[in-house]
Amino acid sequence: xxxxxxxxxxxxxxxxxxxxxxxxxxxxxxxxxxxxxxxxxxxxxxxxxxxxxxxxxxxxxxxxxxxxxxxxxxxxxxxxxxxxxxxxxxxxxxxxxxxxxxxxxxxxxxxxxxxxxxxxxxxxxxxxxxxxxxxxxxxxxxxxxxxxxxxxxxxxxxxxxxxxxxxxxxxxxxxxxxxxxxxxxxxxxxxxxxxxxxxxxxxxxxxxxxxxxxxxxxxxxxxxxxxxxxxxxxxxxxxxxxxxxxxxxxxxxxxxxxxxxxxxxxxxxxxxxxxxxxxxxxxxxxxxxxxxxxxxxxxxxxxxxxxxxxxxxxxxxxxxxxxxxxxxxxxxxxxxxxxxxxxxxxxxxxxxxxxxxxxxxxxxxxxxxxxxxxxxxxxxxxxxxxxxxxxxxxxxxxxxxxxxxxxxxxxxxxxxxxxxxxxxxxxxxxxxxxxxxxxxxxxxxxxxxxxxxxxxxxxxxxxxxxxxxxxxxxxxxxxxxxxxxxxxxxxxxxxxxxxxxxxxxxxxxxxxxxxxxxxxxxxxxxxxx
Length: 529
Ligand code: NAP
What we know:
By secondary structure, the protein is of the alpha/beta class. Helix 2 (61-77) runs antiparallel to helix 4 (94-116) and helix 3 (79-90) crosses helix 4 (94-116). It contains 16 helices and 22 strands. NADP nicotinamide-adenine-dinucleotide phosphate is lined by residues 154-159, 181, 183-184, 214-215, 218-219, 231-233, 236, 239-240, 256-258, 295, 399, 401, 427, 483.
């Protein structure tokens, strides 16, 4: 089997030893191996900082935006190959591969367009200059400039494409070189994308490196101006935060971790209303897309207590129609988890939730389509319920990263908000109602503990972007348990990779910071062609 090489110091280098095997999620056969053993990470990081950094910083935002468009064009050419890799290594049906692959391309293209509008400067003004003295004779202008370090992107296994590109796009646009560390289980897709980008030579030397395999020593050579953008479990984030890179060297860390997201059915949304149907549809979609392996998936469903039973029946009826198995079979709607280790973790989670909840739906009695249950990482959807959600800590704390959610009743609107907050900070909550005043008040009230509040009224049912879909225009991240980080949110995303400074000077000097430039400079790739 192929040992996937690491791209560091401008070269492709194989790690030592046999490496770690990547497997087909359904068939179990080995697909490739990865090893980072023996890679000189300190030298790799120096190369990124000293070769990639200056090259990117020399470009204007518009030129970097052009690079993103060039990268998107390269990846688009190989899209079919990425779908094939995702099918094998992630066990996803086509629609689920699209969330990762096309979602990544969409995000890249979004930043290519938004970045083009930033114009011909390599730094940005933040807000207007403010006066520090009488008659505005001495002013302060805040500016955003690329950090002189590197961006280390540490990604989770569930989004090998989107997770890479949603971080890479703002970092490159900000003018910062990247080192990508994909999660081992699904590193193949990220590796292939980096290889295609490197082969096409669309980025400056040193702008993009990849390390695949063990994370041992990954943080040790980080230096003060570096940035780590981490996505993964709260447990790993907790280990990272204790590392000397952050504690002693002030490396910036952004953490996106797991989250017990909720969906709340409004007090007016009785069974039979459009809002009720919208909640049922969205819950089923969130439970089954990517087999529930989305950090934003709905884990807790909060409904008025009078409609607990009807909601359970409506969700169960739809889940019963989900065919689970080998994504190579056209009749399959939900593929597998990413691999057997994840399967074992989810089974343990099911046992734990099952021990403290009622089981309202369990699809595991239905045979898998074209998959061996002893080998494939397929798990059927499970809906649990707890009638006393106040007393049940587990349902608010345990993230079972699969097609799993728990239904819980609430007494009144205030109780629903209290329960939503029991997630200790979440990426997203969604609200379903036709009562505008209730929705606006609830959205603002929950905004302190959620990165995003997704509000569904009947008039947006067809155009809404989905509870779990992360749009580059909107903020992604959440306080507390969700990691405390922020990503995306339009051009705000560049802030993580740029340093803010105040320039205090005369109005003439402030005006000279960002002089108007007339003609568009050619993109570096156009110059090379
Ligand atoms: P994980 O086990 O925490 O791993 C995440 C990444 O961290 C992997 O690349 C992993 O490498 C690396 N890593 C592990 N230990 C490390 C260390 N000591 N130093 C540096 N890097 C280290 O998470 P996962 O199992 O891949 O992903 C699933 C979790 O991610 C779920 O809990 C999910 O909710 C969360 N998630 C959150 C978001 C979000 O945006 N909030 C998005 C997607 C997923 P190896 O793979 O080589 O161990």
